[in-house]
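thought: user wants a sequence for this fold. calling inverse folding tool.
action: design(structure=
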């Protein structure tokens, strides 16, 4: 670690104690940016990075709601408005019991760079709550969302801050949140993305993050004259990103063989076919069941529950060529990374945000595999949210083919930008440096132009 990064990290840790995920995200970016700050001392003297790591605004609020038994429940709501130098704050809402300030700050920080990479005019933000939608009735989820929005509506707007979904926030939650916003403001605007198709949503938005992560993997493979066809792929998670990653892999002739949830994972050596994936989509999105049922239904598939005593996740120890982590942060540790490399994986495209620990990332970089970090590989979701915002502003809807084509074009460009930037800064093939530097430059230049605000 350079002296500059060492000092920066000491300050970050002192100012933001107990936020290890935020420290991790800042450290990874800072290490890449040393290459830029050495060439451009003007960014260092304007203290651009020191400004980017400080949120423009943090909103923390109480969310009281009543459960079906008539008991009062209290959760905590957050919105981190991280950086608006290149556009309105944009980023998802996460509803999960693990949510805290540090996790949302890491996500908001990553979002700034990711949104910049999309080439669309979007700043970075993130929000959510420690509310757990799992096991709650639709009415409970609705009451929670209404209470959450009864505070959040003051801080957001189509030209200010435009939230979307993330873990635990899908079409159902966006619907309840949008309904309450519309009532409170008495206006129908594109204030949230991921909306239903009949009330302002965009075709392909649900698919976009997973499809985008697969397009990114295909672009990385192209640099070696290869394609996804015929490759066995490990996919984690079974939510939005995982489902559409598997769908696009199937369309491109690859073979997804795993899926998981917080209870455990399934391995299906024969491959998760379209028919089996339809079962998963119904299981997770309609019946809200557990992935374990996959192994009960399909012979030959095996289910392994999560064993908290293990120091690694056995999902990552199966033979394959590609891995698509699509569940949550730090789901691939150093041991998992070693297992992946040992078992033949040489393409990792991150659908989830920061799913790999720094130790794991360093192993991928040392092994010179095709490693696409989340802020580049999963940027298709927010890019398509940007396309939803454009359609809302123009009050028209593009066809499925048109949105998918634009998404594909954006992913090809993000890949090209990361690839070329990594080369320009003397680290060819290092998509981590490419994504961090390319994402940073656009925001940094906007901040320089706009003065000390
Ligand atoms: P969903 O809520 O739809 O699905 C999340 C999946 O991951 C579920 O299968 C869930 O299992 C599993 N999971 C969540 N937390 C954990 C955990 N702590 N341990 C093990 N498994 C876990 O979320 P998304 O698919 O939308 O998001 C997945 C990842 O992709 C996140 O990192 C998110 O930030 C990222 N992402 C999402 C985007 C989007 O457009 N939705 C855009 C860019 C990135 P269970 O059901 O048991 O909780």
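)
observation: tool returned 453 residues.
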């Amino acid at each position: 670690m350079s002296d500059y990064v060492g000092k920066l990290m000491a300050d970050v840790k002192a100012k933001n104690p107990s936020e290890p995920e935020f420290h991790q995200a800042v450290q990874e970016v800072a290490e890449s940016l040393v290459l830029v700050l050495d060439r451009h001392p003007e960014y260092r003297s304007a203290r651009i990075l020191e400004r980017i790591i400080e949120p423009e605004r943090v909103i923390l609020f109480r969310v009281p709601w009543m459960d079906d038994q008539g008991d009062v429940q209290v959760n905590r709501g957050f919105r981190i408005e991280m950086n608006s130098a290149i556009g309105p704050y944009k980023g998802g809402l996460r509803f999960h019991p693990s949510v805290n300030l540090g996790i949302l700050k890491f996500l908001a920080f990553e979002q700034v760079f990711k949104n910049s990479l999309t080439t669309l005019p979007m700043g970075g933000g993130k929000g959510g709550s420690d509310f757990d939608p799992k096991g709650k009735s639709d009415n409970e989820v609705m009451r929670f969302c209404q209470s959450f929005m009864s505070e959040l509506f003051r801080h957001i707007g189509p030209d200010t801050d435009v939230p979307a979904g993330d873990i635990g926030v899908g079409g159902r939650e966006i619907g309840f949140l949008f309904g309450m916003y519309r009532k409170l403001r008495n206006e129908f605007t594109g204030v949230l993305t991921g909306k239903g198709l009949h009330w302002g949503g965009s075709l392909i938005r649900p698919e976009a993050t997973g499809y985008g992560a697969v397009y990114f993997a295909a672009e990385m493979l192209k640099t070696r004259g290869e394609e996804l066809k015929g490759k066995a792929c490990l996919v984690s998670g079974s939510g939005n990103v995982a489902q559409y990653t598997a769908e696009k892999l199937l369309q491109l002739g690859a073979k997804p063989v795993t899926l998981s949830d917080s209870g455990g994972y399934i391995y299906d050596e024969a491959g998760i076919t379209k028919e089996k994936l339809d079962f998963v989509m119904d299981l997770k999105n309609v019946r809200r069941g557990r992935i374990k049922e996959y192994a009960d239904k399909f012979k030959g598939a095996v289910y392994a529950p999560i064993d908290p005593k293990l120091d690694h996740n056995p999902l990552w120890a199966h033979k394959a060529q590609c891995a698509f982590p699509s569940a949550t942060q730090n789901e691939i540790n150093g041991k998992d990374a070693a297992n992946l490399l040992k078992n033949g994986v040489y393409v990792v495209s991150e659908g989830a945000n920061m799913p790999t620990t720094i130790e794991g990332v360093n192993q991928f970089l040392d092994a010179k595999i095709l490693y696409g970090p989340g802020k580049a590989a999963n940027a298709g979701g927010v890019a398509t949210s940007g396309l939803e915002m454009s359609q809302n502003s123009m009050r028209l809807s593009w066809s499925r083919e048109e949105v998918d084509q634009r998404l594909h074009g954006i992913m090809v460009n993000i890949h090209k930008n990361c690839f070329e930037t990594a080369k320009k800064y003397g680290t060819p093939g290092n998509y981590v440096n490419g994504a961090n530097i390319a994402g940073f430059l656009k925001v940094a230049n906007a901040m320089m132009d706009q003065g000390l605000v």
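thought: summarizing for user.
answer: Here is the designed sequence. The first strand starts at residue 57 and ends at 66.
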